[in-house]
Amino acid sequence: MTVKVTKDETPGGKPESVTGDLVLETKGVTLRFGGVTSLDSVELRMLRGEILAVIGPNGAGKTSLFNSLTGAYVPQEGKITFRSGKGGEHSLLGCKPHVVSLLGVARTFQNIRLFGALTALENVKIAAETRLKAGPVSIMLGLPRARKAERESDLKAHEMLSYVGLDSKMNELGGSLSYGDQRRLEIARALATDPEVLLLDEPAAGTNPTEKRELEELIRRINTERGVSVLLIEHDMRLVMSVADRVMVLNFGRKIAEGAPEQVQRDPAVVEAYLGVAPQEEPAAEGQE
Amino acid sequence: MSSGITKTASGGPASTARLRGVAWYQHPRWSRLTAMVAIAVVLTMVTGEQGTDRDIFFALREDFTGPLPWIWLGLCLLVWTVREFWSEPIRKVRRASVAKSDPPVAWVRGQWRGDRRIRQLVLAALVAVAAFAPMGLERYWHQVLVDQIAIYVLLAIGLNVVIGWAGMLDLGFVAFFAIGAYSAAFWTGALPVDPPFELNNFLVIPVAVLTCLIAGLILGAPTLRLRGDYLAIVTLGFHEIVYITAKNVEDFTGGARGVSGVEHFSIDMGFSYEWKLDPLPYYWLLLGFIVLLVFLFMRLEHSRVGRAWTAIREDQVAAAATGVNTVRFKLMAFAIGASTSGIAGVAYASKVGYFNPENFPLLASVLVLAYVIFGGMGSIPGVLFGAAFLVWLPEVLRDYVDPRDRYMYLGALLVIMMIYRPQGVWPSKRRQRELKMATEGTVDGDATAAPAGGKVS
Amino acid sequence: MSLSEFWDFLVLGVVLGSLYAVIAIGYTLVYGVLQLLNFAHSEVFMFGGYGGLIALTAWSPVTSPSGFQSVAYVAVGMCAGAALGGIAAYGLEKVAYRPLRRRHAPRLVFLITAIGASFFLYNLAGKLFGRNAAPMPTMYENKKLFSVFGADINITQLLILISAVVMMIGLDYVVNRTKLGSGIRAVAQDPEVASLMGVDIDKVVSRTFVIGGLLGGAAGFLFGTNQQVFYTMGFLPGITAFAAAVLGGIGNVRGAMVGGMLLGIVENLTVGFWGDGWRYVGAFAVLVLVLMFRPTGILGERVGRTA
């Protein structure tokens, strides 16, 4: 593959001109591992309430971006700002992962990371409980506060499980669920932390067409019913095109395009990044795994 | 110790060997035979004579000229023969017997889970038995019950929180035991330095717990961020530092001579009672502590704290991403373990009255570890049983087995347990599932991150 | 502590440090390929001491050996020590670790197994060879050779230094220049890929243990020559050497050498300043401090994968 990374400014019409309420913003985020630059001054502007998809070939730095946003990696340069709907501006750069989660940015993992030996219910409860305050002493003494917290987390977990449609499987072990169910359980766990922004890392990978349709619907519901802004990494172009409000394209750690799905799909730089050469006609960027 | 070899040598029926065109002597059977011979040699040395430093060959000569090696060799060959040529019929019999024995166990389990009152009744009955049964024993056993079993059970309950629930290997556990004991000595005025005011032993307990808590936090806060296996070595270093300090700072700790004259427990509120040299009242006191702690910790296990620990143990990254403050929960486990150890320290110091740094060797940490693992990490009944049984066993065997060999058998037991039954004799359900899933490659299994070793075998 | 005493302790520290460095290599190599702290390596070291003792006792050296005889004694003792160390390490890997590796056991299980094996081995040695310290038979007259800044250096010290340096150079060569060495490095980086590339992981792991065992065994013999042989002799040098490996950056062979040297010097200077009772406190304090402020060690982790 001989891809020249040239384009820096976004081509075509600029949806950024829509100055909405920014919920997540990065400025010049640069992440290096030794000599390898994984993210190269990435600018991300995410509007409140939108579904923004991040696409790009393998190794483009999508998951690195997620990890930087959630505190798993600390980029060497740049700014990451999260503006909470409850007011307050937080820099996420160098934040510990659990603090990021507490602020209201939840995530799922590309390679599902559930607590396999715990039941589905317990998996979600762990997430719900991080919002509650009940220390070890009050638990050991069985104080009313601890019992109330336990009830609340129970309720929340049940609610989340039925929201993603797993209520019938709440007593099964996380590790023994089917692949699609595990993906949904991960989403339920992320939702149980009451996030404002949800980062989904390839939620459709390895799911079958039916599950994909359900997932599509679930993402829309999360977005509209719960008002959660969704940042989505996905390889499945059909899913991206149907759910995303806007799409951002990464290649070799740089943003090469951003805009409405149809627009991005036609962008020559994007097509080149996916196929390695400028296309003759057929501009689809699908199926590049 | 080592019949693990039988499993390691790559198995596979003779037919596959033939298909691959392997010569007869390359059959895994023969490497297993070699392994069995090696085991016989080791067993001979393990069960043979005690050596002496005056003649370094004495034990080896005695062992291998007598009948012992032949006995072991015979036994090992028998095992080998049965395993190689008779394994199928035996497996059939075993399968049949397993199928038969399952229903009653399932019935008991169902009853146990089904009814809360049955559970409470059985537990109350057990406590009552534990309280009154020792009255029929000799005084020697009372002593063993208090000085050894009860103290070690307390320690094991504490270590279980750290290793069984939070998945951290703490090899400096006994250092907190020592800190508890020295706190007791300090606040009752038995140390060379005088305390600002003397305290009753019962009041020393919260003070000692606090001291251990602080010591645990000081040690834990910087080190718990480290990789799990570094923690083992840092805690080990911490133990050595505490031990060496206790030995060398004579003006404060009494140095290697030790501390004497720690007061006994006593109550003086309206009525007064003093625990004296008679071990039985001490036993009841300690039993009270144990029951109380078990009660409190049981609640923890099935609460958000216990779940958070499990999450950290299984996948730290996912736990943190879910919002679990991993360092805080690890520190919590560490501190809870340390304070339990501190309580045991106070009780021990008050009971024996005299102690020195040699009472807190690193060995003791490893012993407690062995008890927890034998019983089943993360399972309170398992840990209670493991500690009680393994402390009791050498006392019974003291007339048959040289007590100096105790730790050799203990080491072998640890290895064998880890190879064949890492979940312990009375495992916790969560732990058992994790180990099973780790074997299947689904989860990591503990907080020490990626499983060791090449994944491809 | 006067200046001349300082030099005395420094020399002692360098000598001891070179031994620590050799033992630390054993920890670091195994950590590199298995990501495992082989706690039982200290027992390998102890068996090395007994290997030398047994071989020399069996040969029963003459009371005043000639130069040639002395060299032969040392050579035999060192080889025997290295051999027993290698056997112990090989057996350890085969019996204790391989079954766990097959099962992908969690790391905690490995650590506990290592501790159990360590307990078994040193108590077995105590049972077989007696529980009192035994001196190494006299192989040469241990006289002063020369002095550096007023600090005397005797034959044993020089022997330890030279052997340690030779072993370290040899090991560096093996790891960086030979086929086995590239196998070790490959497994350390990524066992799965290494095995796909045709590296026999079991064999590499086994040989890594043996290499570590040979070095540890030889170090055990040298330690026994310098002091005495006893069944618990592995414990403290083992922990210190382990600390040295971590200090230098675990998985990093050159780091282990640097770390070992450093801890040997720190230990002896601690003794110089505060007395023998505090011997091991300095080393542990350094370890804890380093881990707090630079968890990857002085030179960083290299052979091993980074987490």
Automatic annotation (TrEMBL), chain A:
Q: Matching InterPro entries, A to Z?
A: AAA+_ATPase, ABC_AA/LPS_Transport, ABC_transporter-like_ATP-bd, ABC_transporter-like_CS, BCA_ABC_TP_C, P-loop_NTPase
User: PANTHER family from the entry?
Assistant: AMINO ACID ABC TRANSPORTER ATP-BINDING PROTEIN, CONSERVED COMPONENT OF ABC TRANSPORTER FOR NATURAL AMINO ACIDS-RELATED
Please report the stretch or stretches of sequence annotated as the ABC transporter domain: 24-277
What is the name of the protein in this document?
ABC transporter ATP-binding protein
**What CDD domains does the record tag this protein with?**
ABC_Mj1267_LivG_branched
What are the entry keywords? ATP-binding, Nucleotide-binding, Transport
Query: What is the source species?
Result: Streptomyces gossypii
Give the Gene Ontology MF terms in alphabetical order: ATP binding
Automatic annotation (TrEMBL), chain B:
Q: What is its main location?
A: membrane
Which superkingdom is the protein from? Answer: Bacteria
InterPro entries named among the record's database cross-references:
ABC_transp_permease, LivM-like
Name its cellular compartments: Cell membrane
* Residues annotated as transmembrane: 30-48, 68-86, 118-137, 149-166, 173-190, 202-221, 282-300, 331-350, 362-394, 406-423
In this chain, the stretch annotated as Disordered covers: 438-457
Record keywords: Cell membrane, Membrane, Transmembrane, Transmembrane helix
Membrane topology note: Multi-pass membrane protein
| Designated name of the protein | Branched-chain amino acid ABC transporter permease
From TrEMBL, chain C:
What are the subcellular locations of this protein? Answer: Cell membrane
- Would the keyword Mitochondrion be found if you checked this record's keyword annotation? no
Q: What membrane topology is annotated for this entry?
A: Multi-pass membrane protein
InterPro entries (alphabetical): ABC_transp_permease (IPR001851), BCAA_transport_permease (IPR052157)
Q: Tell me where the transmembrane regions lie.
A: 6-32, 44-62, 68-92, 104-125, 145-175, 204-223, 229-248, 255-274, 280-300
The protein's superkingdom reads: Bacteria
One Pfam family linked to the record: BPD_transp_2
Q: Its principal location? A: membrane
* Keywords per UniProt: Amino-acid transport, Cell inner membrane, Cell membrane, Membrane, Transmembrane, Transmembrane helix, Transport
Q: Does the keyword Signal apply?
A: no
Which family, according to UniProt?
Belongs to the binding-protein-dependent transport system permease family. LivHM subfamily.
**Identification of the protein by name:** Branched-chain amino acid ABC transporter permease
Natural source organism: Streptomyces gossypii
